[in-house]
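TICKET: design request
STATUS: open
ATTACHED STRUCTURE:
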């Protein structure tokens, strides 16, 4: 065999009957093969090692996303895989997770779809270690939702831009480089995007959780402060450097103590520009931006305040220039700054009464702590103000229907030195893990028991015991013990720490807690963490001394006052809330928000601690797999049900899929919701082992089944839409065909009507005063006017237009004429000329002997006074003009009447028409007459000689145009463009009609559902049942004197088809029923059938016996009716039974007939009197539809037209249609960076995814199964 042009060889042609094999696609060889399994519920062996092996294979191959059912597992690649492009994004739009590879976009699509489909709030919970990729995942979810949520309104686009702008802004102020992550979130954030009922974003809100403000005043080696400090000090403008005294980050203690200024893959200058742009998008004014940067400058300069120890051990300011500049920035007295930083006010109380007030000096350590507390408070309040300001800008523009929440919060942390900050972070992660357990493990199993669902229970670790260890009050937990220690020893931090150590001994009864002196251990779900108690109570108090509040209160800077607007009331005896109290309240509110929404989960995993794109730390990942509970998640997923919902919700969502529960989009089930739900699942063909009915809910085992149900529902609406579109297109095709016929008739007759008007005007001009020529009165005679085609493109017409210099002027009349030429001493004679008439003048063109042409005479219309003609049938006329040397032209023109009517029309009857026995005209300046004599010897036209014209007799002067000839009648061509919505025919009526069920209220509602409108509109009325046929006809009655039936005789032979009756000429039939569609039910020789009424004529009545009544055959459709083309159409009529309807086409060999008999010619061509038109127009007008049916032509006389009807088994018949002044700016301090040589203090603290493999069309499979069950 020869090699084909395409790759591969030709295969031998297989014998008939062999199944055809689909041609292989050469592109399949270039598709990326799937590595591992994309959904770990399909793993053969369920263990931590098998999970790790699968994740390693996929991560090594650049596939970082894997599913466990609906939970997405993400392994940080530490490199750009190019999988977040717009092209990739659009691949996930509108797709369920089984149609596309695992991706964060799929989780976003699922949340957005479920929100719109089920009208329920959604949330995406992203958890994992620090550096595992939580922030990146949150950004990608926001990217996807902004791209697919639609909306063209400016406010909607503005909200989208603001939501995306929050990422660079909050990353600058809330993220920092840590040892584990270059862009680690040092705060928690819950972003709620609000949508209207159309799924368009109309607003957003951010909730902030536990900013790590201790990072502002100290970092360990190779970590950095928050990004904004490095961006500000590196990329600030010259005006800002001058105003705030800015220097590089190495000049400030708060940004240089860790000796880390540059970070790989981070460009601080570029990020600063992005931050400024984000501020602009959010709507921060220039004044607000300036105040934000002023506060950052205050913090940076506070870090450079150094304290020296005096001889008495008290602290003093080493360089007062720094405090002077701080006072300038804060807009306070610099002396007061020095005072509050080096001393504090102590007030004594005696018996509850106010005592003495003392200024107590501070030692350098105390002064440093107070300085750092002020810096942390300013930054924390600034961050919260920014978040609140963002929320103001993103406030919802209209009513909120649903919300999608995105939780991006700090991951679980285990350091060498873990303190209060780590305790709070890990506590929040415990709460999130508790939610995960509650929603995916514990609640699920409890629900199965409650709903009496058969399944296999799974053992799992419930971390509620750890959450209670930290947050409970009775018995007191860690936070309660901290609060008690702070209250009993509030003046001395060391004493408070010791009190806390003693109180932790009471927690030793908890198996997840161990007290180890100055440390304690908590066994978290993610691992054991050892916490240092030193400084914990002080951090828990988290309060500024009164002196620092007084310093802020004395500032004339309104922005600074706003940041500390909630200063505590010194007269209040109520203990202010501690940091532990606040984090408990925040975590509780977060849990409440998440529990009110339907969650989606993204579990992030960090493959190594070195941010390497190639290193896979198996030990570390196994640890994360264990504490994330992935193995238990897989077991529950495999043993449980993927989807469940209440019976009411299930019925409301899927009632369309069963004919027992819906009719034309309306809910019609009359039973309870549970039985309705069960009926839907059975009718859709879903296997019984794929679903179970609980007590209050229906459970579906596999997501594939749910996706199949959704696909069926989508197809239902597509089918309804297609049917409406098909009906609309049929209507328009039928309407257009009717319009074309009307247009064709009008085109064939409009010219004749216009010509008839002009011709009638000509008769009026003559007014019965002149004999007429016989050919002038023919019915086909029309006044064309431009007989020489001067307005067209003919050669003669173009030459005449050029000779007469007409330009764009239109010619109203042109013709060949004879002109009477006068010569001296000789008799006048006729000479040929061309006559051209325009709206301005009459042109007489002469042809010279050499063949050239000239304008012999131009006569303006205003100079013509009258037109003279004789009263005989001759063709002579004279144009009587004003006196001139040339005289009046005397013309012989066959179209004299048309010429006269044309001139009168142009001059608005401004000239007279003189008719008499002679024509008087001016021969140069003399008056001369031409006589007219009747001479019957003249055979044709007339003869001029010596001023006398001999002419034979003509038609009487009162003659008018002959009437139009009656044309041969033809066969009416049926309309074949557009089809009936229901199949119809005369021989197949439905025996029984399915009654339309009444709409029922949806489960849980009191009125019928109006959410789903009928896709078909109101149903047409049903056909009345035919009369019943008696099994044995009764004996005929005696003859009647007066018949009660009418008899008709066949005028022509008619060959009937099924349901019709065949007739011969002169057959007498009895009329049973008349129908206004052109068909009558008749009876002949005890046989009934339908016949066309125009084939029958009434017979004079005579006495005849009445025959027994019989059931008539089905009625045929009206002649222009068309038959439906597919079985799907038959369901548009509720009363019709479901039957198979075949496509029907009319006979292509039909003879063309006139649309309007007597007006159009029988051969379909233009009428003889119609003005010739272009060939293409003629072709379009004369086209005969191929689907016409020839009528019977057995009789010698042509019979009337008969409508086309289908020959195959006919379908059922269709029914009938129905401030103060401040000191001057001090000089910028130039003191060297403090503590340069001192050791830093310890601080507490992607390749593209593979292409989707083919998926089984479960919706089609279920539909087939349902059909088989119904057939059985």
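STATUS: resolved
RESOLUTION: sequence designed for all positions
ATTACHED SEQUENCE:
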């Amino acid at each position: 065999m020869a090699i084909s042009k395409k790759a591969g060889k030709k295969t031998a042609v297989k014998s008939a009957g062999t199944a055809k094999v689909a041609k292989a696609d050469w592109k399949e060889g270039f598709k990326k093969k799937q590595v591992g399994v994309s959904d770990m519920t399909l793993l053969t062996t369920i263990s931590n090692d098998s999970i790790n092996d699968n994740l390693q294979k996929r991560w090594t191959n650049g596939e970082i996303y894997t599913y466990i059912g609906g939970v997405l597992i993400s392994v940080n690649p530490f490199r750009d895989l190019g999988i977040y492009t717009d092209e990739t994004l659009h691949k996930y739009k509108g797709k369920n997770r089984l149609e596309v590879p695992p991706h964060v976009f799929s989780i976003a699509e699922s949340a957005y779809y479920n929100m719109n489909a089920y009208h329920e709030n959604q949330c995406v919970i992203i958890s994992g270690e620090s550096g595992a990729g939580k922030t990146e995942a949150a950004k990608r979810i926001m990217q996807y939702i902004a791209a697919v949520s639609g909306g063209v309104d400016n406010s909607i686009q503005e909200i989208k831009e603001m939501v995306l702008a929050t990422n660079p802004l909050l990353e600058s102020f809330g993220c920092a480089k840590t040892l584990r992550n270059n862009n680690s979130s040092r705060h928690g954030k819950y972003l709620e995007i609000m949508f209207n009922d159309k799924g368009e974003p109309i607003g957003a809100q951010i909730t902030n959780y536990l900013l790590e403000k201790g990072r502002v005043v100290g970092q360990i080696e190779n970590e950095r402060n928050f990004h904004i400090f490095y961006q500000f000090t590196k990329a600030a403008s010259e005006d800002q450097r001058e105003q705030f005294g800015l220097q590089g980050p190495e000049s400030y203690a708060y940004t240089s103590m860790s000796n880390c200024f540059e970070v790989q893959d981070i460009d601080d200058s570029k990020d600063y520009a992005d931050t400024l742009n984000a501020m602009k998008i959010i709507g921060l004014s220039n004044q607000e931006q300036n105040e934000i940067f002023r506060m950052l400058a205050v913090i940076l300069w506070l870090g450079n305040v150094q304290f020296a120890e005096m001889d008495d051990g008290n602290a003093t300011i080493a360089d007062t220039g720094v405090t002077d500049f701080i006072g300038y920035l804060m807009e306070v007295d610099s002396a007061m700054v020095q005072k509050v930083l080096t001393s504090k006010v102590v007030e004594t109380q005696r018996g509850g009464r106010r005592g003495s007030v003392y200024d107590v000096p501070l030692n350098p350590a105390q002064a440093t702590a107070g300085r750092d507390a002020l810096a942390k408070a300013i930054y924390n309040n600034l961050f919260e103000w920014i978040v609140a300001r963002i929320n103001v800008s993103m406030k919802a523009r209209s009513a909120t229907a649903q919300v999608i929440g995105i939780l991006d919060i700090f991951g679980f942390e285990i350091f060498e030195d873990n303190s209060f900050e780590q305790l709070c972070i890990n506590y929040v992660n415990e709460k999130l893990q508790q939610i995960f357990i509650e929603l995916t493990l514990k609640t699920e199993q409890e629900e199965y028991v409650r709903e009496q669902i058969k399944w296999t229970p799974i053992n799992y670790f419930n971390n509620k015991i750890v959450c209670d260890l930290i947050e409970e009050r009775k018995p007191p937990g860690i936070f309660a013990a901290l609060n008690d220690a702070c209250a009993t020893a509030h003046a001395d931090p060391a004493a408070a720490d010791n009190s806390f150590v003693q109180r932790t001994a009471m927690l030793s009864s908890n198996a997840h807690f161990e007290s180890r002196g100055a440390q304690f251990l908590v066994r978290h779900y993610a691992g054991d963490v050892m916490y240092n108690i030193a400084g914990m109570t002080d951090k828990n108090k988290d309060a500024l001394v009164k002196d620092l509040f007084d310093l802020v209160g004395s500032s004339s800077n309104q922005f600074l006052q706003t940041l500390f607007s909630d200063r505590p009331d010194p007269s209040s005896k109520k203990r202010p809330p501690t940091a532990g109290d606040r984090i408990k309240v925040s975590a509780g509110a977060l849990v409440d928000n998440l529990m009110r929404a339907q969650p989606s989960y993204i579990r992030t995993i960090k493959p190594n601690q070195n941010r390497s794109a190639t290193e896979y730390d198996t030990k570390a990942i196994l640890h994360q797999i264990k504490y994330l509970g992935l193995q238990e998640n897989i077991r529950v997923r495999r043993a449980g049900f993927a989807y469940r919902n209440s019976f009411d919700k299930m019925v409301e969502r899927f009632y369309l899929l069963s004919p027992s529960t819906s009719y034309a989009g309306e809910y019609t089930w009359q039973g309870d919701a549970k039985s309705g739900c069960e009926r839907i699942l059975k009718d859709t063909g879903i296997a019984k082992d794929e679903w179970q009915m609980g007590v209050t809910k229906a459970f579906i085992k596999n997501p594939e089944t749910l996706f199949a149900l959704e696909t069926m529902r989508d197809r239902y609406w597509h089918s309804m839409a297609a049917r409406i579109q098909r009906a609309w297109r049929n209507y328009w095709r039928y309407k257009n065909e009717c319009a074309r016929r009307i247009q064709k008739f009008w085109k064939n007759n409009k010219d004749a009507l216009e010509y008839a008007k002009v011709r009638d005007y000509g008769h009026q001009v003559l007014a019965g005063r002149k004999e007429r020529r016989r050919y002038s009165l023919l019915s086909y005679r029309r006044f064309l006017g431009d007989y020489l085609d001067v307005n067209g493109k003919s050669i003669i017409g173009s030459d005449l237009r050029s000779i007469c210099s007409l330009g764009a002027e239109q010619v109203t009349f042109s013709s060949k004429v004879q002109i009477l030429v006068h010569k001296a001493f000789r008799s006048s004679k006729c000479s040929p000329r061309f006559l051209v008439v325009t709206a301005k003048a009459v042109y007489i063109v002469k042809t010279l002997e050499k063949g050239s042409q000239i304008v012999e005479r131009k006569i303006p219309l205003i100079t013509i006074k009258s037109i003279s003609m004789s009263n005989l049938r001759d063709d002579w006329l004279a144009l009587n003009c004003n006196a001139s040397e040339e005289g009046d032209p005397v013309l012989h023109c066959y179209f004299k009447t048309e010429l006269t009517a044309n001139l009168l029309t142009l001059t608005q009857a401004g000239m007279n028409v003189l008719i008499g026995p002679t024509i008087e005209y001016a021969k140069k300046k003399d008056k001369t007459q031409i006589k007219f004599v009747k001479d019957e010897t003249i055979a044709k036209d007339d003869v001029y000689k010596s001023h006398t014209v001999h002419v034979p007799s003509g038609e009487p002067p009162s003659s008018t145009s002959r009437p139009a000839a009656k044309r041969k009648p033809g066969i009416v061509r049926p309309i074949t463009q557009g089809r009936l919505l229901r199949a119809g025919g005369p021989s197949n009526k439905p025996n029984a009609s399915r009654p339309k069920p009444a709409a029922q209220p949806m489960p849980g509602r009191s009125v019928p559902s109006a959410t789903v409108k009928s896709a078909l509109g109101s149903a047409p009325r049903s056909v009345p049942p035919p009369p019943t046929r008696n099994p044995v006809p009764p004996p005929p009655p005696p003859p009647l004197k007066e018949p009660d039936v009418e008899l008709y005789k066949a005028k022509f032979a008619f060959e009937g088809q099924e349901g019709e009756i065949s007739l011969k000429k002169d057959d007498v039939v009895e009329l049973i029923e008349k129908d206004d569609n052109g068909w009558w039910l008749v009876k002949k020789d005890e046989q009934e059938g339908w016949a066309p009424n125009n084939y029958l004529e009434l017979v004079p009545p005579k006495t005849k016996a009445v025959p027994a009544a019989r059931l008539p055959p089905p009625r045929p459709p009206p002649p222009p009716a068309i038959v439906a083309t597919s079985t799907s159409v038959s369901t548009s009529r509720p009363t019709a039974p479901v039957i198979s309807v075949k496509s029907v086409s009319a006979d292509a060999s039909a003879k063309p007939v006139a649309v309007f008999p007597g007006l159009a010619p029988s051969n379909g061509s233009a009428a003889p009197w119609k003005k010739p038109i272009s060939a293409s127009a003629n072709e379009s007008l004369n086209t005969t539809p191929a689907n016409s049916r020839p009528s019977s032509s057995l009789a010698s006389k042509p019979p009337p037209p008969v409508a086309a009807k289908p020959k195959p088994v006919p379908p059922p018949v269709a029914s009938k249609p129905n401030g103060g002044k401040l000191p001057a700016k001090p000089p910028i301090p130039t003191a060297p960076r403090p503590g340069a040589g001192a050791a830093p203090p310890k601080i507490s603290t992607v390749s593209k995814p593979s292409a989707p493999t083919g998926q089984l069309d479960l919706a089609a499979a279920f539909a087939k199964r349902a059909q088989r069950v119904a057939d059985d």
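CLOSING REMARK: The first strand starts at residue 65 and ends at 68. Residues 769-951 form a domain with the PH-domain like fold (CATH 2.30.29.30).
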